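Is this the right way to post structure tokens for a design question? Let me know if I should format differently. Anyway, here goes:
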């Protein structure tokens, strides 16, 4: 990056850091754009040039997440399936770091703030197109192949599902087992339904 780009990146980071600190200290709804600009020592006009709104300040690493998802497909180890590579990436980058105190604070802020929770989910699902294209390119399928789109969509949604469970890792494993092997009813459900099927 040139000097100008480095300065812009530093300003964005300072704004995002100031915003997160204020949100954690006071609560998201109690912090204004003006508060954030003052904490970062810039004008509100400058802040709005870098971020379209308060929610965007919380999810400043969005482009990095997309690049990492695509890399998980393109750079997976030999012999790994696409679901296995995506499962491993999501476990390492979004589940296993949940015990880190700073990450736990961030997740609590997001999950306890409806505006951030909804915005975060929309931003996360925006990666679906790039992930679909990466999967299609890897498999030699057309860019809009519905099977590739389905894998991308459900892989991303699997993380949202897992985060709401008591055991996020087990939930993510269950979702990716389904993507890897197809649908098989849990044993207890099969046993419960067996007499009904036999009666027919």
């Amino acid at each position: 990056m040139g000097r100008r780009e480095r300065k812009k990146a530093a300003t964005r980071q300072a704004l995002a850091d100031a915003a997160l600190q204020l949100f954690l200290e006071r609560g998201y709804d109690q912090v204004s754009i003006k508060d954030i600009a003052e904490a970062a020592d810039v004008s509100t006009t400058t802040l709005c040039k870098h971020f379209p709104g308060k929610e965007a300040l919380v999810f400043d690493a969005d482009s990095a997440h997309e690049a990492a998802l695509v890399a998980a497909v393109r750079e997976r180890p030999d012999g790994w399936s696409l679901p296995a590579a995506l499962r491993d990436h999501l476990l390492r980058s979004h589940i296993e770091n949940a015990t880190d105190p700073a990450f736990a604070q961030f997740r609590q802020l997001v999950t306890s703030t409806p505006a951030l929770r909804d915005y975060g989910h929309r931003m996360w699902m925006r990666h679906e197109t790039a992930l679909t294209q990466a999967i299609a390119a890897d498999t030699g399928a057309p860019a809009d192949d519905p099977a590739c789109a389905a894998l991308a969509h459900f892989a991303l949604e699997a993380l949202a599902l897992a985060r709401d469970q008591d055991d996020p890792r087990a939930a993510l494993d269950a979702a990716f087992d389904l993507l890897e092997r197809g649908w098989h009813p849990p044993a207890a459900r099969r046993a419960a339904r067996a007499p009904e099927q036999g009666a027919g």
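Format looks fine. Someone answered above. Worth noting: The chain has a mean pLDDT of 88. The chain has two domains: 3-58, 62-185.
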